[in-house]
Design goal:
single chain, about 425 residues, alpha/beta, Rossmann fold, formyl-coa transferase, domain 3, 6-stranded parallel sheet, 17 helices, 11 strands, about 10% strand, elongated
Length: about 425
């Protein structure tokens, strides 16, 4: 396949990042550094596969030819802008290769459970002795120290353990809801970028690298403003309100005539008046009506929701949304993935990028978290295949072609997984 050519960002030009993490949080953080122009090398696990590279076809795997592990959504979306070396670091020669990469890198990102990277021979002191200017971001679920330090956890375990799961559901008797997409996997990559930039700036002052102990649980807990505030300030546990808000009525989702769902909210009395006008129910906002104030609406939450639901079920979603918005109140459609890809605003801003993928051809891929003018983030590499840059990277380290062949034969490196 001919590589697509893009204008590489220059913001982090000259910075080399080693992505030694797996799944989503760490890898996507590394991808964002690549978006900014850093040279990112993915240390692909070999011969053990990453969790994002299944052998058997499952719901994550796109239809197409080629190995299933090259067609998974999480692998493709979380690993752009990297070169890939599939390396057996448990092998003595693989260990040597990783040391050589560390010698010439600025940042290493790893997300193993606490203690694992030390067992591989690459704890902070060892890495710092190899290269005292490298910054290491260690991001196990619970951080490097403490009674939970050695526990392994993905987003589901983190969100449950810090209290997010208990904020979901419609009431205290409802089943606890864990979403399919974990918010921790969205927040942690941004923390990786922040920690990387801070450590690079600090290195300009000290001329030495830093060790960043990034607990994903702690980084996510700060986003639970409501539950934390309720307990810290009021000594109250969080209520399960589903799509409702404790201090706003209405604040919910409602079904429409065309079998879709929409969001409607009125955050204050002025918005409530505009919503009532749109729904042709001006009497609800008249001063003598019990729903005219937020205090009254909070007392009659269920009744208000039921009345709005009746109105919505008589109109198509676009019709009622347009009417509410024209009156200056809050309404929005709830869209699925195809709906997002048809979003006119995102297309106008060229957020989606048409990228040629191995085995799958051209696909629209998600864009970047920010635009910057000049020098916006861009794709330099689409997500690479297992070991796609083995030879290129090893030759840069001084390995001859004959030596690289021997490394393949010894399974120190590879470019495919056993099926």
């Amino acid at each position: 396949m001919v590589r697509q050519q893009f204008n590489k960002s220059q913001s982090l030009k000259g910075i080399r990042v080693l992505d030694f993490a797996e799944v989503w949080a760490g890898p996507f953080g590394a991808s964002m550094l690549g978006d900014l122009g850093a040279e990112v090398i993915k240390i692909e696990s070999f011969p053990r596969r990453s969790l994002t590279r299944p052998i058997i076809e499952d719901a994550r795997v796109a239809d197409g030819p080629g190995p299933a592990y090259e067609r998974t959504t999480s692998q493709i979306q979380g690993n752009r802008n990297k070169r890939n070396i599939a390396l057996n670091v448990k092998h003595e020669e693989g260990n040597i290769i990783l040391r050589k990469l560390i010698e010439n890198s600025d940042i290493l990102i790893e997300g193993f459970a606490a203690g694992v990277i030390e067992k591989l021979g690459f704890g902070w002191e060892k890495i710092h002795n190899i290269n005292n200017k490298i910054n290491v971001i260690s991001m196990p679920a619970w951080g490097v120290h403490g009674p939970y330090a050695g526990y392994v956890a993905l987003g589901s375990g983190i969100e449950a353990s810090v209290g997010h799961a208990l904020t979901r559901g419609n009431n205290s008797k409802d089943i606890i809801h864990i979403p399919g997409n974990f918010i921790t996997d969205a927040t942690a990559p941004i923390q990786v970028v922040l920690a990387s930039l801070i450590s690079l700036n600090k290195r300009k002052i000290t001329n030495k690298g830093s060790f960043i102990d990034l607990s994903q649980a702690e980084a996510f807990a700060w986003h639970l403003v409501g539950p934390l505030g309720e307990w810290i300030l009021n000594n109250r546990e969080t209520e399960q309100l589903g799509n409702s808000d404790k201090y706003i009525v209405p604040h919910n989702i409602y079904p429409t005539l065309d079998n879709k769902w929409i969001v409607i909210s009125a955050e204050n009395d002025e918005q409530w008046q505009k919503l009532c006008l749109a729904l042709d129910k001006s009497e609800w906002s008249s001063i003598e009506h019990k729903w005219s104030t937020i205090t009254g609406r909070l007392k009659h939450r269920n009744k208000i929701d039921n009345e709005i639901k009746k109105i919505c079920l008589k109109q198509d979603s676009e019709q009622i949304i347009s009417l509410i918005q024209q009156c200056g109140a809050i309404a929005s459609p709830i869209v699925d993935a195809p709906g997002m890809f048809n979003n006119l605003q995102m297309h106008h801003r060229n957020w989606f990028k048409a990228i040629n993928l191995p085995y799958l051809g051209e696909r629209l891929m998600p864009g970047f978290l920010w635009n910057m003018q000049p020098d916006s983030p861009n794709y330099e590499y689409r997500t690479e295949q297992v070991g796609e840059h083995n030879e290129e990277i090893l030759q840069e380290l001084g390995y001859a072609k004959k030596e690289i062949v021997k490394l393949y034969n010894k399974s120190v490196i590879g470019n495919s997984y056993a099926e």
